[in-house]
Every structure is written in structure tokens, then in C-alpha cells.
Amino acid sequence: MTADALWICQLGLVEYREALALQEEVRAARQAGAIPDTLLLLEHPPVYTRGRRSQAGELPLGEQWYREQGIDIVDVNRGGLLTYHGPGQLVGYPIMRISDVIAFLRTIEGAIVATLAETGLTTRGRPEDGPDYTGVWAGERKIASIGVHVARGVTTHGFAINVDNDLQPFEWVVACGLDSVRMTSVALQSTGDEHAGPPLSTIRATVARRFAEAFERRPVEISITDLQGALGDRRAERTP
To answer: Best label site of 139, 155, 184, 207, fewest CB within 10 Å?
Structure first.
């Protein structure tokens, strides 16, 4: 393990709570110095997540109605407000040791902007508009959301890029705590059709490369089997 390595693990479609548990396990290993900084790339089944700054009224139709639409609801400890995850959206969870949260957020924004530029899209972060506008925007529409949590200097949670996911669930809620916010996607911005455009696999490969470049790290692809093996070794070390 070298100091400049960034493990990148592609997980596919993972239930949200399962991914949350994995993040905590990876973070504990990173805090202990047992593994290098790690980026998990995945998708989730439909789920709304509410961050630490979430407010009443973000789910105006009532929790039961959303669950009847097949959308789970989970409260989490990340920063930010309510957002939606679903298939076709690329989610990235960087588990990294950091010293400056704001610089970390701005660097993630920059990596996403560089990723989307390779698809021909012009996007930007909007930090000048305040914390509620953290993320990446295509004009006045939000294309990527960011929210993190830091414990003992190591992050969990991260970013979500709308690639070719269904955008309707965002319309049913107060997304990101902004009444006027409208979401967009790579597909919609590229072709005008939210179900057409660059494949998620292409965006996933590009964001892995651009993320590593933004943080000046050497990307190392690692399988879930190898990651679990590293976590298993750590479990064995802790067993009396």
C-alpha cells in the first residue's frame, strides 16, 4: 500500500443500507491505516435519503405514499438535505482521510465538472450561492449532488451524478431543500431524452480517472472480493 494510491471499487447495484454498512466498515479500516483512501462506485434501488440539515415538509405527500411507489426512505448522518438515488444514477462514496472539508467538496465538484466536460457538457459548481447550492449545475438545473460526513478525519457518503435515471421522483419532493430546484441528467442535457445519452459505464470510468487526477492520486482498480478480503484481514487482526 502506497500513500498516493486510491483504491477504486465498482460495486454495481447495491441496496442503500447495505452500502451504508460497507462504508462504515471501510472507514474504520481507513481510520486504522489498514487500507488506503478508497472510492466506491455504485447504483442504488430507489431511495430518498435525508441529511442532517433536512427539514419538515421535504416529503409533502407523506412517507407512506412514497413507499407505495417503491421508494425507500432513510435518515443518514451526512451533510445536506433530502435527495433521491435510483438506477441509472452514478453514486460515488469516497472514504478518504482529509483535513479541509470545504476544499474536499470543491475538489469533488471540480472532478465532476471535468468528467461531464468529456461528454460535451458545460457545468459548474455554485459555492458563491451558499451551502445549499453545493453540487454541480448545468445552467439553473442541478445535475450532481454532494453530501459528506467526516469522523476522525475520514469521510463517508459523497456524490451522485444523474446519468440516465428517472427524474420524476425529484419532482415529488423538495429536492435539496430548494423549492425551485429542478434536476437534470447527462442524458437529458446531451440528447433531450432522459433515457438516452452516454452509457453509465462510460461516465463511471471517466469519473474514476478524473477523481484520482483531482486529488493527485494513483488509481488502483480493486474488486469487491479483494476489498472484502482486506476488511476480513482487519477483522481477523481484531479477533482475540
So the answer is: 139
